[in-house]
Specification:
The complex is a heterodimer of chains A (327) and B (529). Chain A is mainly alpha-helical. Chain A is built from 14 helices and four strands. In chain A, helix 5 runs antiparallel to helix 6 and helix 7 packs across helix 11. The longest helix of chain A has 27 residues. The radius of gyration of chain A is 20 Å and the shape is globular. In chain B, a hairpin with a 2-residue loop joins strand 14 and strand 15. With 529 residues, chain B is of the alpha/beta class. Chain B contains 19 helices and 22 strands. The chains are: A mainly alpha (327), B alpha/beta (529).
Chain lengths: 327, 529
Amino acid sequence: MADQATVAHSAAPEKKSVFSSWRQKIIYIGFVCIFAVFAATLSDQGFLDPNNLLNIFRQTAMISVMAVAMTFVLAAGEIDLSVGALAGFSSVVTAMAIKVAGFPAGVVAGIGIGIVVGVFNGLVSTRIGIPSFLATLAMMGIAKGVSMWISATAAIPILNQTYAYVFGGGNVGPVPILLVWTAVFAVVGHLVLRKTTFGRRVLATGGNETAARYTGIDTRAIKMQVLIVSSVTAAVAGMLYAGRLQSGRFQFGEGDELSVIAAAVLGGTSLFGGAGTVIGSIIGALMIGLINNGLILMGLEYSQQLIARGAIIILAVALTQQTRRQT
Amino acid sequence: MGPGSPVTGRSSEPANAVRMTDIGKAFGGVQALDGVNLEVRHGEIHALLGENGAGKSTLLKILRGVQPPDSGIIEIDGVPLIEHTPEASRAAGIAMIFQEMSLIPTLTVAQNIFLNREIRNHLGLIDDREAVRVARRLIEEFDVDIDPAAQVSELGAGQKQLIEIVKAVSQKTKILVLDEPTSALSSAEVERLFALLKRLRSEGVGIVYVSHRMDEITKIADRATILRDGRHVITAPLSALTLETIVEHIVGRRSRGFSDHSAVMIRQGLPLLELVNVSGARKPRNVTLTVHAGEVVGVAGLLGSGRSALARLVYGLEPVVVGQIRVKGRAIAASTPRTASAAGIALIPEDRLRQGVVIQHSVANNIALSVLGRISRRSWISRVAMDQIVVEQMRRLRIKAEAPETPVQALSGGNQQKVVLGKWLATDPDILILDEPTAGIDIGSKAEIIVLIRELASQGKGVLLISSELPELLAASDRIIVMANGRTIREFGRRDLDPDDAVTTDAAERLQRAEQRLQIAIQEASANG
C-alpha cells in the first residue's frame, strides 16, 4: 500500500504530451544515440547517404505498418503472432488475383484475406475462448501452409506496373511511397488510439477488462476488432512486400511477428495491455531497421547480425522496463 | 432518460429505488440464491449482510446486470428491468463499486470518469483537456484534492475509491452499490467516504452497502437485509437490531470467539523474537519489542502506520537499516526470507491471493509447497509423507474442501486463508507473523482463526498479529502495541484495556469498552505521531 508521502508525490500534476513518460523518452534518446554512433562510425560506408536513409524507411515500412496495428492488439491485452505469415499469404493471394483479374481485384483479394483471417482469429479467441496467443500461433502455421500450397512454393510475379508503383516501388516527388504509407498509418493510428472512443475502449479493455465490461464496454467486440485491424494491416503489409518486390511469395514477412512485437514494446507499449503509443511503435520499428542497416554496413555476417540485433533489443527493452519500475 | 425514468400515474406512494423480488439463481447444481428479496428506498443506506458465500455478490451481480437471474423480478423505480446486461442496468441508473477496483489503472482520472461517454470536440475526436476541466469541477464539488490528469495507478486506495464514487455519481446514478468499500481505506478516508455517502443519501440516492465490518454498518446504515445460505433472513431498520442479533442472523448460531476473550490466560515463556531499536529504510523507525513464547502480541494502527512494513522487515523482505533482530537470543545477521524461515519465523502475508497461495493449484500442493524438502528424497516427493502433512493441517484447521485435490480457487475466502495458514504451520515455525489474517473472510471463519491463534500460543509459539479489526485484536492478543508513522507509540496490556473493576461483567459490553479505549488510543497516536 502506498503511504502518504508517495501518494502526495505521485499525484502532483505533470505535463502530459506525446513524449510524456520516461519510458517513452528512453526510446527517443536510444534512437538518437544509435543514429549518432552509426553516423560517426559508418559515414565512410555511406550510412548518411540520403539514398541509404530512404532505404531504411523502405525496408522497415512493413514492420512499421504492422507495428501500428500491433500497438492496438497489445494495448487491448491480446497478441497476434500470425501477422508475419499472413503478410506472405496476402502477397501470394494478391499476386494470383492480379494475374487473373487485374489491379483492383488484387487489392480486394488481399484485403479480403486479411478480413477473413482476422474474423477467424477473433472468433476463435473470443467465442471459443482460446487465448489469442494460441489462436494466432495456430493461424501462423495455417496461413503459411495455405500460401505454400496454393503457390506450389513458387514466386508469383506481378507484372502490373501501377500496382508495383502504388504498393511499393513508387515515389511521391522525392518521397518513397512506402514512407507515405508508413506516415498515413502512423497518423491515423495515433489519432484513433489517442482521440477516438474506439482507442479509449481498447486501452480500457487491456487496462482492466472487468472494469471496462462493467462500464458498458463490449470487451469481446473490442478484442475481435483489434484482431481484425491487425490482420487487415498485416495483409496490407504483405501487399507492400508484393509491390516492392513485384511478386508474391510465401516467405515474405517470415519472422516479422517478432520484429513487430519488439518494435511495439521498444516504443513503450505494454505486453500486459492498457498502455501503448503508436508513435513509439513507429520509432521502435525504425530503430530495428536502423540497427539492421548499420550492422549490414559494418560488414557483419548474417549470423553475427542476428546476435548483435538480439543483444541490442534486449538492452533497449531492459532500459525501458527499468525506468518503468522506478516511476 | 430511457427505461430508468420514474413512471408517473402509478400509486402516489414513491416507488422503491430497487425492488428485487423472489430472485433465484443456480450455478451448476448449487442454488446460490433462493427466493431472495431486496428493497432499497430512495435516500437510504441499506446494508446487505451475510457470510462469504451467503449470496451477496451474486445478488449484486444480478442487480448490476452482470449475470441474469434464473427467476424473479427486478424493478427500478417501479419499472421492471427486462434486459439483464451491464448496459441496461447502467442505463437504469445503477452503479457499482467493486472490491477489485472498477477503474482502468493505465488511464488518467479524467479519462476514467468519462470512460465510454467521452467528451468530444466538433470533429468527433476525444477532448481530453475539456474532460480534465470538467473532472476537476466534479472532484472539487466533492471536496477532494485529486489531480484529474494523474494516472490512476499512481493514486492511493482511498483516492481511487473516491474517484469511483465521483465517476458513478457524475452519471446520474440513482442506485449506488458499494462492495466492501473500506477494506483498503484509512480511517480518515473512511470518514470522508461516509460524509460523501450521507450527502448522496440526502440527495435521494439509494445506497446498497456491503461490509464485514459491523462498526461501519451500525454507524452508517439505515436498514439492513441479511442473507444466509442464499436465502433472505430478515430486513429491518438498524435501530431494531443489536450487534448480537445481527451476528446471530448472519452466522445462524450465537457467535462465540469474540466475546469470550477475557477467559484468555497469560502465560509467558522465554523471549522468542526481540527487536532492538530496529529501523527500516523509511518505516518502521526505532522499534523495540519482544515476543515471548506463548504470547500473542497484537499490532494496531491505521493504514500506513508501518505495521506491514514491520512484518516484512522481520521476515527479511525489507532490509534492516539500523538495529538488531534476535531470535531466541541469537542475532540474525543479514535477514532474508530464507534465513528468517530457517530461524523459525513464518509470515502469513496480507494479500493472500497474490503472496500466499498458488490459486490454481490444489489444497494439497499448496500446503506441501513449504515443506517440499522434508517430504522428498532426491527430489522425489513421497506421496505418503505429503498426504500425512496435508491431512493433518486440513483437520487441524478444519479446512472445508471436497478433497485435498480441490483447487484453492474453488474454496471460500475463509478456507483459502486457512490453506495459507496450513502452508506455514506445516513448517512448524516458532514465530508466526500474521498480517490481517481475517481480511475479507466471513465471521465464522474469523472466530475459528482467532481460536487457532490462541491454540498456537498455548503450544508455546510466539505470534505477532497485525490487524485493523479491533475486536479481533482484543480477542486474540495478550498485549497490543499501537503504531503510528512507523513508530511504536503505546503498549497496552490486556488489563489496561479491560480492567477488572469494569462496571459490567457482560463480556460483549466489556469488549466494546475495550475497543473504544483502543480506538481512541489509535486515533491519538496517529494524530500526535
